[in-house]
Amino acid sequence: MGKKHGFVEKEVKRLARQVALERIAPNAGERDENSTFPWDEIHILGECGLLGMAIAETYGGIGADRATFTSVVTEIGRACASTALVYVSHNVAQKAVEITGTEAARQKWLPAMLNGRMLGAFAVHEPNSGCDARAITTTARRQGDHYIVNGSKIFITSGGEAGLYIVLVRTEPEKGPQGMSVLLIENNTAGLSFGRPEDKMGLRSTSSREMFFQDCQVPAGNLLGVEGTGMQVLSQSAMDWGIFAAAAISVGIAQAAVDLAVQHAKERAIAGQPIGVHQAVQAHISDMITATEAAAALLMACAANADASPASATSNGFKAKLFASEAAVEVTNKAIQVMGGHGYCRDYTVERLFRDARGLMLHFKTSEWLRQDVAKAALGL
Ligand SMILES: Cc1cc2nc3c(=O)[nH]c(=O)nc-3n(C[C@H](O)[C@H](O)[C@H](O)COP(=O)(O)OP(=O)(O)OC[C@H]3O[C@@H](n4cnc5c(N)ncnc54)[C@H](O)[C@@H]3O)c2cc1C
User: Fold this and answer.
1) How far apart are CA 51 and CA 44, in angstroms?
2) d(CA 225, CA 230)
3) What are 287-307's pLDDT values in tens digits?
4) What pLDDT is recorded for position 1?
5) 60: which of 69, 303, 371, 375 is 20 to 30 A away, CA to CA?
6) Phi, psi of 202 (to 5 degrees)
7) Radius of gyration for the chain, computed over Cα atoms and rounded to the nearest angstrom
8) Which domains can be identified in the chain, with CATH numbers?
9) CA–centroid distance, residue 131 to ligand 1 (Å)
């Protein structure tokens, strides 16, 4: 973003806040209720130039750093966590094309991804791999100018809706993690089909589906990076960028819960007194505010560290995501407590916030894996 950095950053955040508040938040509850995919909201973000904000100016983006990117995701997450998750998955796919695609692939895909005509997603997880991406079994065997892909993926955000997927496959099954690669696969490729959307507890507008590959023919030119570097390709996009954005969604959810609980504690009067006058309620509110601000501050510090020293991005992202995703669950849980029976009812948004926050402790690495990763980095293991 060069010299204009400060000004552009401020303007982008202001724009994101306004768009999120005025155009994304109003129907978030209805989308959750009906599991409606946020296509309108994605197109709005495309019209505003926010879809490609983390992509270099050469390719039509604004080259935002992680700190700016996560600020924008926080605003979207505060308005609607499902829209934010779809946005983040799209950005992971875009970043993968930008960082590891050939120049031809960038020219082919990025313009359509930046304006929202082509939605991106990433597909790593498999029914039998669990949290461990190194255990995937989907294969891609080279045959002339194509790879022939066989296997399946599960829980894929934007599954069936996105037009382009970055898919982790085994190109040399006998080589373990060294035998993995990432392919770009279009949704209309023969041999690719999708399951029905999962009936999830939260993040209900994100269309999580299974993907099935049966002798699916993918052009060899759709390989990202070089064969055998699949884990690195993924790490550069899903971990070095996506995991910060996942943390930002949690921070946004927590901020929304604080706003609602504080407002409720001021307005809800029992025996002539607002419930906020009681010290026990104040303690909940105080805990919510400090946890939310701590998560936001840690995220900003980790994003700034990663921007200054990109080699530290993954380890910084792990800390930010671990803390923010757990903080959001605690904060939304307390918000329900402050709001009593009302907080437990669908008409009062906090129950949705709690359901959405819970999903983010699972996606983009579970808390258990993140704890191990943070400790291993410190121990040099
Ligand atoms: C809302 C949502 C959206 C998602 N979107 C996508 C997507 O777009 N693309 C994609 O590829 N995936 C996606 N996923 C999948 C997600 O990444 C996985 O659900 C997650 O990695 C956990 O895997 P699992 O569900 O198979 O849990 P399991 O692997 O079955 O784990 C169950 C429990 O065991 C623990 N556990 C497992 N192994 C270990 C270990 N070695 N040490 C310690 N604890 C362990 C886990 O932490 C967890 O608590 C999404 C998931 C959710 C919930």
Assistant:
1) 9
2) 8
3) 999 999 999 999 999 999 999
4) 47
5) 303
6) -140, -170
7) 21
8) 2-119 (1.10.540.10), 122-230 (2.40.110.10), 232-379 (1.20.140.10)
9) 4
